[in-house]
Amino acid sequence: MLIKMTPTMSIIIVLMLHLVHFTKSSSDKYFVDGDLILGGLMPVHDYNETSSKCEGILASPFIKRVEAFVYAIDKINNDSAILPGINLGFDIRDTCYYDAVALGESVNFVLDQEHANERTTCSHGCKIEQTPSPSCKSIRNITGVVGAQRSGSSIQAATTFGLYQVPQISYLSTSDELSNKIKYKYFLRTVPPDRFQVSAMIDLVLHFNWTYVSILYSDDSYGRNGYREFQQQSADRICLAVEEAISASSDFNHIVKMLLGRGAVTVVLFLNVEIANAIYDAVERLNATGVFVWVASDAVGNAGINGIAQHEAAAEGTFTMVPYSKRLPEFDIKFLRTTPSTTLNPWFAEYYDRRVNCELNCDEEWPEDDYNSHDTLVMDSVYAFAYALHNIQGSLCHKDRPPPTGDCVRLLQEVSGDSLLEELRNTSFDSLVNGRLEFDSDGDIYGRYRMSYFQRDVMGNLRAYPIGIWTTGGFSNLDEENIAWSVKSSINGSVPRSQCSEPCKPGFKEVLIYERVQCCWKCEECTGSTIVDQTGYECIECIDTWPDSTHMNCLELDNVYVSWGSHLGSLIIVTASIGLAAIFVIFVFFIYYRNEQILQNSEPLLNYVILIGVSVVLTSTITLAVEPNEAVCYAARLLPGVGVCMMYSSMALKSIRLQKIFKVAFASDSTQNPKLIQRSKQLGLLFITVSIQIALSLIWLFLRPPAVLSIRKVEGDTARMEYSCNLERNEVITCLTYNFIFITICCASVFKARDLPDNYFESRFLSFCSFTTIVIILTFAAPYFVTDEKELFTKCIYLTCGLILNSWIVLICMFLIKIYAIRYVKPEEETPNARFRSSTTLSTRTLVTSMQMQKRTWSTNSEGSTM
C-alpha cells in the first residue's frame, strides 16, 4: 500500500537524519540544469564513522562512473534521434559509500521537489498559499534517479522514492531483496540480481567437483540474501562446512580457525571488499596462506586487484565474478584526457590531485586496468530513462497531434511516476556496448557475468585473469587449463579437492560425522543380509532375497524345498513309495488268501482299515516332499492325522477284542464264545473316531488356512529360500493328543491280555506296535516341538521320519508276519513255526478253552505249593 508523504512526515525524516549526525563537504552535489532532471546517487568519497564525515576521495572507478553518467547525458543531448527538442539535466549526489548518507540524499531529493512545488504557479491561477486543485499540476524537479551503488543504499533510497513514485534504476545493486515489487515497486536495475550470481558461483563450484565448501557472508541485506539464495540453490548438491555472518566487529582470527578446523578448501565470500580484506589479513596472521580457494562475489570482483592490494598473498587463488559489461574505448580515452579545467565535476579536482600525487609518490596505479568500473552499466541506466521518455514523448507530442498548449516539455515534466515506470518496464534497446537490454516483470535483467582468477604473472605480480563468461545457460569457454592453482593441496597442478570425505566403496554406508554437514562421513560396511540403500546412509535388509558380492543389490535366492531333486526328498519319496507298493501287495495277497483261517480269525475288516490308514500316512509324507502349494498344504495338514487315526482306532478295537476274550476266559469255566463287537458296530465306531479327527483338522484349517511359508536360510556367505507348508504346532499337538487316546487303549488292553497262550502271537505284535509307537512319538515329537519355527527342513525331517518309521512298524508287525505264516509255515510240522502258524488259526472258542485249562493248571500248582 503506497503512502503519500506529507510535509509533516518529511520533517520527521529530516529530524531522524539529523540524529544520524553526519557531516558533508560543501561540494556534495554535481548539478546541471535541463528540461528534465535525472538524479544520481553515486559514491565519490568514503565515510569516516569516527569523525562522521565524508572524507577521502574514492578510487578511480567511482569518479569514472560519475563521468560516465555525464557522458551519457551529453551523448543523448547531442543525439537528435533521442528526445528531440528536450535537453536533459542532472543532479548527482555523493552517497559517501554509506547507507545513511544515501538515505539522507534521497530525502533531500524529495524535499527539494516539495519546495519546487510550493514555488510553482499553475497556469490556471493557483496560489502558493492555497491547496493545489487536481487541475493544477506542478513541475517535477526530478524525473528519475540513477543509483545507488550499494544494495543497502538502494534499499534505503527505494523506500523513500517509492513514497513519492519516483522511478529508480541502479547500476550495481544486486540484492535479491530489491526484486520484491511489493516493497520496491519503483526500483529497476541494469545489473543482474544476486540469484544469477549465486547460480554462477554454484556452477563453478560443481564444475570442479567441490561438494564441501564454507560460506562467509556480510551481515547486511547483500550478504544475507546471497547466503539464503546459495542455500536454496545448492540444497542436496553442496554441503556447507562453515556458515558465518560477518560484520566489521567480528573476530576474524576465530573465523579463520573455524575454516581450518572444518577442512573445506573452497570458501565462498559474499561480502564487501573491506570485510574480505579483514579475512585475508587474518589468514596471513595465522600463516594460512595457500590453504583456501576463494570464490568471491562481485563486491570483491568489482574492486579488482587493487581492492586487495595489501593482502595479495592471501588473496592469490581467488575466483571473482562481476556483472558482464564491456568498456567503451571512446569514453576511456576521454576520461584519461579529462582534467579539472575540462569538466564541471566538483569532485574531479580532488581526484586529479590524488591521482597525480600517486603517480609521483606512491605505488598505487591510476587508473587501474584491473578495476571493473562498470561505467557502461551507468550509461545503460541513463539510456533506459532516455528511451522511456522518448517513447512517452512520441505519444504526447506527435507532430500530427500537437497538444493543445503546444508545450511538449511541460507535458513530459508532468508525466507521473507510474506512467514512467510502466514505460521503463516495456523499454528495450541496444546498449552502447553491452548488447540488448530489457527488463523483466521485476525490473531486473537476465544474468551475465565475467569470471576472473587471481594468479601471478611471469613477473610475479598478482593479476586478474579472465577465465570465462557465464550466462543463464552456463559457462562458455571456461579456460581452466591456464589456471595456476596456488593452494598447497593441489598435486602437480591438478584441481584441488574440496570434499570432506571420499566416496565409500561399494557395500559401505556413509555415517555422518557432523549432524549438520551432509558431506562429512565415515564409511561403515553393510554385512550379512543387508545392502546399502539408495541414499547411501543406511544398511537395509534384503527381504526374501540375498545381497550380491558388493552388498549393493538384492538378488533373488534359489527356491529350495524338500523335493525329488534333493537327497532328503528322494529318500522320503522312495521309502514311502516302497511302503505303498508293499501295501498294494498285501491287499492283493489278503484278497487271494482271504479264506485262510489266519486271516479269518484276525478281523479282516480292521486289517483293511489299518492298511488304508498306513497308505494315507505314507501318502501324506510324499506331500511333504513335493513343491508346496495351497492344495499340497491342505493334504499335508489333513492326511497325517486321518491316517494315524484310522490305524490306531482300528488297532484299539483289535486290542479291546483280545481283552474281552481274556476277561471271559478267566471269569468262568464256560466254553461259549464271548460277546464281541459286531462288525457293523466296528464300522460305526471307526466312522465316528475318524470323523472327529477330520473335524479337528478342518477346524484348524479354518483357523489357520494353509499357506506356503518361505524362510531364508543363511549358511556362511550364501543363502537360499526354503519353502514349506505352514504346519501349525498346536494342530500337531491336537492330533497327537487325540490319537494318543487310541494308543493308550491299545497298550492297556494288550497289557491286560498278556496272559494269553504263548502261541497266540498277535497280542504280542499289537503290544509291540503300541509301545513302539510311544517310543517313536517321544523320539521324534520332542525335537519337532523344540526346533525353531524357522527350521522348516529340520521339522519336516522329524515329522516324516516318525510317520514313515511308524508305518513300516505297523506293516511288518501286523501284516508281513501273517504273510510269512501263510506262505512258509506248514501246519502238519511239529516245529516252532508250525506252532506259530497254528496259533494264528485258533478260533475264539478254542482260545477260550485253552486259557481255561491254563487257569486250572495254575490253580493246581498253587495248591501243591501250599501243602
Mean pLDDT: 81
Say how many strands there are: 27
Q: What separation lies between the terminal Cα atoms?
A: 138 Å
Low-confidence stretches: 1-8, 17-23, 119-140, 363-370, 829-867
The spatial strand order of the largest sheet comes to 10-9-11-12-13-16-17-18
Measured as a percent range, the helix fraction is 40-55%
Taking the sheet with the most strands, its summary is: 8 strands, mixed
Alpha-carbon Rg, integer: 54 Å
Query: Strand content of the residues, in percent?
Result: 15-25%
Shape: rod-shaped
Please describe what this structure looks like.
The chain is α/β, with parallel strands linked by helices and 867 residues long. The chain contains 26 helices and 27 strands. The strands form 8 sheets. The chain has an 8-stranded mixed beta sheet with strand order 10-9-11-12-13-16-17-18, with helices on both faces. Residues 1-8, 17-23, 119-140, 363-370 and 829-867 have low confidence and may be disordered.
Explain the layout of strands and helices.
Layout: H1 7-20, E1 29-32, E2 36-42, E3 45-48, E4 53-57, H2 60-77, E5 88-94, H3 99-118, E6 144-147, H4 151-163, E7 168-170, E8 187-189, H5 194-207, E9 212-218, H6 221-234, E10 239-246, H7 252-262, E11 266-270, H8 273-285, E12 293-296, H9 298-301, H10 304-307, H11 312-315, E13 318-323, H12 329-337, H13 348-361, H14 375-396, H15 408-413, H16 417-425, E14 428-430, E15 436-438, E16 448-456, E17 462-471, E18 474-476, E19 508-512, E20 521-525, E21 530-532, E22 539-541, E23 545-547, E24 554-556, E25 559-560, H17 567-592, H18 597-600, H19 604-623, H20 630-667, H21 679-703, E26 708-715, E27 718-725, H22 729-752, H23 762-786, H24 792-824, H25 832-839, H26 844-866
Parallel strand pairs: 2-5, 2-6, 6-7, 7-8, 9-10, 9-11, 11-12, 12-13, 25-27
Antiparallel strand pairs: 1-5, 3-4, 13-16, 14-15, 16-17, 17-18, 19-20, 21-22, 23-24, 26-27
